[in-house]
Write a structure and sequence with these properties.
261 residues, mainly alpha, 86% helix
Length: 261
C-alpha cells in the first residue's frame, strides 16, 4: 500500500514538474510576441506548414464525421418524429464539441508530431546552438513563430471541419433521407448562437492550439539528440497532447456551458 502511494506521488510530482517546465519554456514566446510579429513572413511560413498542409486530412475527416452524425442523428430523431431538428443537432455538436476536439486530435497527430521531429532534429544537429552562438534568439526565430502559427491555424481548421461536416450531414439528411432543405437550414439558423456556440468553439480551438503546439515544441526542444530520443519525443507529443485535449475539453465545456454552476 505504501509503495503504491509512493509511486502515485512520484508520478504526480513528475507531471507537475513537466507542466511547470513547459510553462517556463513557453513564457518567452508570450512575452516575445511583438518581436515575432516584426517578422510576419516567419509566421506565414509556419501557417503554411502546420495549417495548409493539414487541410486535406481535416476536410476529409470533417466530411465523413458529418455524414456519420447525419446518419446516426436521423435514425435517433426519426424514432421521435423530430427529423427536422437534424441540422440543429449536427451544427451544435460540431461547433461546440467535435469540431474543436477532433481537429485538435488530428492536428496533434499530423502537425504536432512534425514540429517535434523538426525541432528535435535541429537540436540533434546543433542548429539551435549555432543560432545562439551567432546571437540569434531561438525563441524569436524558431519557437515563437511556430507557437503562434499553431494558435492561429487550429481555430481556422476547426471552422473548416465544422462547415464541411455540416454539409456532409446535409447530404445524408436532405439528399438521402428527404428532409426538407429549408427546414434543415432554418432550424440551424434559429438555434445556433454566435457567442454561446460558435465563439466558445473558437476559444476552445485556440486553447487547444496553444496546448498542442506548446507540447510539441517543448518535447522537441528537450529531446535527446539521438534518433531514438527524437522518436520517443514525437510519441510523447501525440500521447500527451491527446490526453490534454480530452481533459481540457471537459473543463472548458463545464466552464463555458454552466456545468460547474
Amino acid at each position: 500500500m505504501i509503495k503504491t502511494v509512493g509511486e502515485l506521488g512520484a508520478r504526480t510530482m513528475s507531471m507537475v514538474r513537466w507542466a511547470g517546465e513547459g510553462a517556463l519554456f513557453l513564457l518567452p514566446s508570450f512575452f516575445g510576441m511583438l518581436a515575432v510579429l516584426r517578422r510576419p513572413r516567419l509566421i506565414v511560413q509556419q501557417l503554411y506548414s502546420v495549417g495548409v498542409l493539414s487541410m486535406v486530412i481535416i476536410v476529409i475527416a470533417g466530411f465523413f464525421v458529418g455524414m456519420v452524425l447525419g446518419l446516426q442523428g436521423y435514425i435517433q430523431l426519426s424514432a421521435y418524429k423530430a427529423e427536422s431538428a437534424l441540422g440543429l443537432g449536427v451544427a451544435l455538436t460540431l461547433t461546440r464539441e467535435l469540431g474543436p476536439v477532433v481537429t485538435a486530435l488530428l492536428f496533434a497527430g499530423r502537425a504536432g508530431s512534425a514540429l517535434t521531429a523538426e525541432i528535435g532534429l535541429m537540436r540533434a544537429t546543433e542548429q539551435l546552438a549555432a543560432m545562439e552562438m551567432m546571437a540569434v534568439n531561438p525563441y524569436e526565430r524558431v519557437i515563437g513563430p511556430r507557437f503562434w502559427a499553431g494558435i492561429i491555424a487550429l481555430p481556422l481548421l476547426a471552422a473548416m471541419f465544422s462547415v464541411v461536416g455540416i454539409y456532409g450531414s446535409w447530404l445524408v439528411g436532405v439528399a438521402q433521407f428527404g428532409i426538407d432543405h429549408g427546414i434543415f437550414w432554418s432550424t440551424m439558423e434559429a438555434g445556433v448562437e454566435f457567442r454561446e456556440d460558435i465563439l466558445n468553439g473558437v476559444v476552445k480551438s485556440a486553447i487547444f492550439g496553444a496546448v498542442v503546439t506548446g507540447i510539441a515544441l517543448f518535447e522537441g526542444y528537450f529531446a535527446k539528440p539521438t534518433s531514438e530520443g527524437v522518436s520517443r519525443a514525437t510519441t510523447r507529443t501525440v500521447v500527451n497532447s491527446s490526453l490534454s485535449i480530452l481533459a481540457l475539453d471537459y473543463l472548458l465545456t463545464s466552464l463555458m456551458f454552466g456545468g460547474l454552476n
